[in-house]
Specification:
This protein is of the alpha/beta class. It is 29% helix and 30% strand. A 5-stranded mixed β-sheet has the order 3-2-1-4-8. Strands 11-10-9-12-13 form a 5-stranded mixed β-sheet, sandwiched between helices. The chain has a 3-stranded antiparallel β-sheet with strand order 5-7-6.
Amino acid sequence: MLLPRFKKTVLAIAEDGIALRDAGSPTRALSKVEQELDNQTILDALHEHQSMLKGKSVNLVLANTFVRFIVLPWQSGLYSRNDWDALANHAFREQYGAIADQWKIRTSLNGFGENVVATAIDSTLYDGLVNAAKQHGYAWQSIEPVAMRLLNQAKRDYLGTLIVEPEHLMLCETSQAEFKHFSVMSPPAGQEAEFASQMLARWQLQLPTSLQSNPLAIHVSGKLKESWGQEFEDMRGKLNLTMLMAKQQHQTHAGWLTTI
């Protein structure tokens, strides 16, 4: 029997909506603009629009607000992914308490001897996504937060990468191409640039003088493109920044996520 031919598609889920983009086609919204999402709303939208996904191989991108991150130091005595997953489960439970038992935790192994990034997603959402794909005849090619999608594309000589989303900032620090630490801030709407400037200024003060001129990458959501102005220019004058601004403005953050 011939298997269905899958077509690559990007589906993005953010706090402000769900968006879908097929290769060579414009992005389409699968939820109302600015609609607040919870797990059930997300799964209901996938059920409603199942015909747009059926028979496709889908890359799912989640806004960082849906995910928690931990960096695990390399352990020479751990040899399997199961060992690393068990260590990640322990680390999340130690930091967040019993609520971590409700999360789907996965590890991303890099080069031998390098630190390991662990991510946690609400288990109800994750299991619902997996079951929806099985029920409606499509496949998840990948399920990953935007942070990992961008960091895997980034030049490894960056000292760090700042990802700016609506009401959410995430700074990933690296050293010699190795992940070191994730820091998160939640600024009020419209104050993302101001808080990003403050976050980077504090971070720079902690760096050795020899590293303060190393390059730093900033990714800014296309939803914020219009409002992002002089604050960044002020930061550029103080720090060695590589600005990776969205090429065009997007009505929703989810719409921008389908383009990266």
